[in-house]
């Protein structure tokens, strides 16, 4: 019994579909499949005899074909690759060496001067000045020189403190309204009031406007160290006061955001003598 290849292919496809679906073969297909199997079994010896010469050659021919088709392989051992170093996941932190604090010396120059240790060096507050000049008084002008010197020395103890509006008591700096920061300080009239009280024991009025009315206004050619200087004139009078040091300099608490300092005398200042 012989079957053409198409019949065998159709029967095989039908059998595979039935197997996938898990259903039995239809009777016609089952008959064809049974006949195909019987025919194959009957023809098997004849096919074996025809294929035997080719099968005998396969063991020798397959390696030869493989050598022609496949590229040559390098059988030399691969060089060893060193393991890459494992990078640390921890960040590198460089800790700077500790820096020793710089402590500026406290110096108050000038003959006969005395100041508490809190006074910073005055030379750093006066550009171009290597030392604080000696207070110079005109001997032809009557003056309580010792009291004037004490007023100035008391005011110098406030150098470097912040301007605090409303700040300053008879015994030292206060916070005032606190707008000058976290350190106690003085406003302009508070600084003058403190310095005069420390030198004389006398209490001046609190504001610069009223302080101007207490003393005697004098001409500039008569001004001496320790005299008061009034300025910043407005409708209510003098809104600023400072202490004259001589030589065109004065010590003052200027305004919010600044420190008690030595400044050049300004053109609107008017000298007043208290003693």
Automatic annotation (TrEMBL):
The keyword Protease applies. PROSITE patterns: NLPC_P60. It comes from the Bacteria. Pfam families: NLPC_P60 (PF00877). Residues 145-275 form the NlpC/P60 domain. Gene3D superfamilies: endopeptidase domain like (from Nostoc punctiforme). Keywords: Hydrolase, Protease, Thiol protease. SUPFAM superfamilies: Cysteine proteinases. The keyword Protease applies. Belongs to the peptidase C40 family. This is C40 family peptidase. It comes from Rhodococcus baikonurensis.
């Amino acid at each position: 019994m012989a079957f053409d290849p198409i019949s065998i292919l159709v029967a095989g496809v039908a059998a595979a579909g039935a197997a996938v679906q898990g259903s039995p073969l239809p009777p016609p297909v089952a008959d064809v499949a049974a006949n195909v199997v019987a025919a194959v079994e009957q023809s098997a010896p004849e096919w074996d005899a025809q294929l035997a010469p080719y099968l005998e050659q396969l063991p020798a021919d397959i390696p030869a074909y493989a050598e022609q088709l496949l590229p040559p392989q390098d059988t030399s051992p691969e060089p060893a690759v060193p393991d890459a170093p494992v990078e640390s996941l921890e960040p590198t932190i460089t800790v700077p060496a500790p820096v020793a604090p710089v402590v500026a010396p406290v110096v108050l120059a000038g003959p006969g001067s005395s100041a508490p240790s809190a006074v910073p060096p005055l030379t750093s507050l006066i550009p171009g000045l290597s030392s604080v000049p000696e207070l110079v008084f005109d001997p032809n002008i009557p003056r309580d020189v010792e009291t004037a010197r004490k007023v100035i020395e008391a005011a110098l103890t406030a150098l470097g403190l912040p301007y605090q509006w409303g700040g300053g008591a008879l015994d030292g700096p206060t916070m005032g309204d606190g707008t000058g920061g976290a350190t106690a300080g003085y406003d302009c009239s508070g600084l003058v009031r403190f310095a005069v009280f420390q030198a004389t024991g006398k209490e001046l009025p609190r504001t610069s406007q009223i302080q101007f009315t207490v003393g005697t206004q004098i001409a500039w050619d008569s001004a001496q160290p320790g005299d008061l200087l009034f300025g910043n004139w407005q409708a209510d009078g003098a809104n600023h006061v400072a202490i004259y040091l001589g030589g065109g300099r004065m010590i003052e608490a200027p305004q919010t955001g600044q420190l008690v300092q030595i400044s050049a005398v300004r053109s609107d200042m008017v000298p007043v003598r208290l003693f």
